[in-house]
TrEMBL record:
Keywords: ATP-binding, Cell membrane, Membrane, Nucleotide-binding, Repeat, Translocase, Transport. This is ABC transporter ATP-binding protein. It comes from Miniimonas arenae. Pfam families: ABC_tran (PF00005). It is found in: Cell membrane. One of its GO terms (cellular component) is plasma membrane. Gene3D superfamilies: P-loop containing nucleotide triphosphate hydrolases (3.40.50.300).
Amino acid sequence: MRLELRGITKRFGAFTANDAIDLVVEPGQIHAILGENGAGKSTLMNVLYGLYTPEEGEIVVDGVPRTFAGPGDAMAAGIGMVHQHFMLVPVFTVAENVVLGQEPMARGLIDAGSAATVVRETAESLGFHIDPNALVGDLPVGVQQRVEIVKALSRKAELLILDEPTAVLTPQETDELIEIMRTLAASGTSILFITHKLREIRAVADTITIIRHGRVVGTAEPTTPETELASLMVGRSVSLGVDRAPAQPGEPGLAVRGLVVRDAHGVPVVDDVSFDVARGEIVAVAGVQGNGQTELVEAILGVTTPEHGSIELAGRPIDGLGVRDRLDAGLAFIPEDRSTDGVVGEFSIVENLVLDRVGAAPVSRGGALDVAYLRRNAAERVAEFDVRTTSIDREVGTLSGGNQQKVVLARELSRDLSVLVASQPTRGVDVGSIEFLHRRIVAERDKGAAVLIVSTELDEVLALGDRIAVMCGGRLVGIVPGGVSRDVLGLMMTGMPPEEAARQAAEHHTLLGEADLAAELQAPDGEPAVVQDGAVVQDAAVVQDASHESEEQR
Ligand SMILES: Nc1ncnc2c1ncn2[C@@H]1O[C@H](COP(=O)(O)OP(=O)(O)OP(=O)(O)O)[C@@H](O)[C@H]1O
């Protein structure tokens, strides 16, 4: 399928989120859309998937202009979407989920046999296996994502929209998804790929369209260096990675001793975890989502009571204290799910910036809110943290995802804090803003805070961690120095002890590990090198020329 978006304009009131966007996606093309937070990527994808009606412009599929009144129309035109939050029913089997919504309504019966065949055959054509009879709720996230892909393909999708698909995957699973994307593209399926991860774009995209302030500002090749892509995206030069002095660990900041937390079924989800974070250092906890990190953080914050163990803040046990007392004792907290724990969507930016400080100075004076202070505070924080908004009075729920996250960070990093616990602090935030936010977190460390970062992003863990703790299955697999390789961390995330991970990583590089190495080993003419099995075999220019030659020969 050849898709053309012609002059798509989508407005929210007076605000133009998409401004005359033109985009062409060729059959079998992997087309990455890159843009900073609030650039208008999700809006454009929602227009394409029939969720928003554009004010102007045309969606043209194989030369025919189409109007989509809803996702059903988009699907009928061959467009499928894998959302960030999967739309599967956990208590149904894979086969049931795949046919859900497409079984003949008259009978209301699901033909289990043929659904299972569709699942098996589609999966096999993409080079993996899925048990059609497995319950979706029992499957790891990476496999659930494949079920979503199979589901879209079973509806004859010829163009797949993948919205930040790797946010929930391990590096190894990301490699596997990249392989699946390549297989799909080779069979003619087009892919629109949204991600903030430049490394992935360079690994998989055929072409890149860059959107800024709702407009297409350019296209780029996947060979474009990461720093250049980042600058194109934000419209200024960006330095990736944080320059920082080595940590100066001091007094005890946070201490966790023999912590055990059980879930509702009595299964230990945090299993005898002990570690220390000194003031003046950052410990980053790496791991695939769902390996006990959430429960660990909840126990530190005081929203759950552990079965065993104790937690100390600056040498003082806090086990008996409630959440508010812990915050008052100098704990700052950035929750992993901003929409449920971080912001109140219906409240304004002004209100969200002081949520839990109402009643205390300087937010309240003499029993009343100090409105002048609140407005001044909001204007300053919005400017400092580069929250893209038309007004400080706007409801936070209408900001783009990345900008909502900046509001949470602006509030929490402006506290008087001695211990900072941050879960996925930059999830969904673009590289330009990540640079700033990471610098702010390091600045808190250098002011003497003990910082615990929980992140599923290896880039983030590596950028911030003075030491890196890896969790798997509720246990602490090991704590390693900050400079460790991505491959070692990826293997430890599967539960492999550090020594074994180091040995295996030396023997086998992941695809993205290779991209890493290639970026470091730039050929003299500036072209990235091609790395196989950990060794440079060719520079990319030569490989491209060779492929042209063979095409011509054929
Ligand atoms: N329902 C809405 N009402 C008002 N404004 C909106 C609405 N949805 C989006 N916007 C605005 O449109 C702009 C584009 O938002 P969009 O979600 O498309 O950005 P994005 O590129 O996907 O950003 P991110 O990377 O942060 O997810 C933002 O400024 C956002 O505040």
